[in-house]
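Standup notes, structure subgroup. Blocker cleared on the oxa(dethia)-CoA input:
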Amino acid sequence: MVGLEGRAVTITALGTALPDREVTNDELSRSLDTTDEWIRQRTGIGARRVAAPGVSASDLGILAARQAVDRARLPPEDIGLVITASISPDQLFPPTASRIAYEIGAVRAGACDLSAGCSGFVYALALASGMVGAGIHEHVVIVGAEVISSILDWRDRSTAVLFGDGAGAAVVAPATEGGGRILGFDLGSDGAGGPLLSVPAGGSRMPATHDTVDARQHYLKMNGREVYRFATRIIGDSATRVLEQCGRRIDEIDLFVPHQANMRIIEHAAGRLGIPRERVCTNLERYGNTSCASVPLCLDEASASGRLHEGDLVLLMGFGAGLTWGACLMEWGAAGPL
Ligand code: UT7
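Run returned:
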C-alpha cells in the first residue's frame, strides 16, 4: 500500500498515439484458426491497431509524450524525468525512455524504463507522484508505449487475437487549485505467478540461442485461464483497499478505468464491486489489449468526450505480468487533463 505524503500532485495533460492500420477479427481469421464470433464473445475485442514494420515502442511513445507536453504548454527543458512503462520496449537496454526524452527535447530530464507488466502505467504514475510530491521533480512525463505485435506469436491463436499497439502519456505535476489531485495507490505483486505470462527467452535467465528461436521462446506466452482468475479476484481486492485507504466509498466512483484485457474480466469485476456499466470506461472493442497504454488511452478518450467533470472520482486499475497489480484513486480537475 502506498500513501501520499508531501505536496498534492495531479495529471496536467494526456497524450496518445495509435498506429493507422486496423486489423479486424475477420482479417485475423483468414490466417488463424479463429472467428470473429469467438473473439467477440470471449474477449469483447472487435479490432486492434498494428504498427507498421520498423515502428517501435519509442516511436509511438514520442508522439504520445509530445502531445501531452504540448497540451500542458510545458517547455520540454522543464521536464525532470521521463519514465516509460512497456512490455514491448525497444530493446533490453538502453532505456526506451532515453530516446523518448531525447526526441521530445527533454534535455535536462533523467530517463528510465519500468517493467511491471500491464500494470506499468499505474506504477509509473505512482513513482512520478512520489517524486513530484516529495519535491524531487516539478514535472515528470510518464509514457505507456507498446508495439506488442512485435512479440506476438502470430501462429498462436490463444494470444495473437488479444493484443494491440498504441501509446499513452501523461504529465505529472504539483496540483493547483481546482486542478484535481492524486489521492492514493494500492500496488502489489505475486511472483509465484511469474511463469503465467512472460516472454521466456532473450534475458539472462534464458539467453537467446538458435534453440530458443526455433522453440519460439521469444514470443509472449500466457496461461489465459489462470491470469483470468487472478484478474477477476485482484481488481476487486485492490480497488477496495485503495478506497479504504483514501476514506472513499465505491458508490462515489464516477469513472472506473480498468486495464483493457477482456470485457468479461471488466464486467465481472465491475459487477462484483457494484459499479454500474455506464461508469466503466472501455476501448478494447476497437484497440484490444494495449497493455501499458490501455489506461491512458481510455482516460484520454473519456476526457476528450466530456465524460469527466471537476471533482469526479476516478479509479484507475492495472494488472498483468509479474503477476502485478496497481490501483490509483484520483480526483479530476476543473479543466481536466487537456
Ligand atoms: O493484459 C494482461 C492480462 N491478461 C489477461 O487478463 C488475459 C486473461 N485471460 C483471458 O482473457 C482469457 O483466458 C482468454 C481470452 C485468453 C481465453 O478465454 P477462455 O475463455 O479462458 O478460453 P480458454 O483458454 O479456456 O480456451 C477455450 C477454448 C479452447 O479450446 P478447447 O480446449 O476447449 O477445445 C481453446 O483452444 O477456446 C480455444 N481458443 C480459441 N478458439 C478460437 C483459444 N483461443 C482461441 C481463438 N479462437 N482465438
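Discussed briefly. Residues 2-174 form a domain with the Peroxisomal Thiolase; Chain A, domain 1 fold (CATH 3.40.47.10).
Next: hand off to the docking folks.
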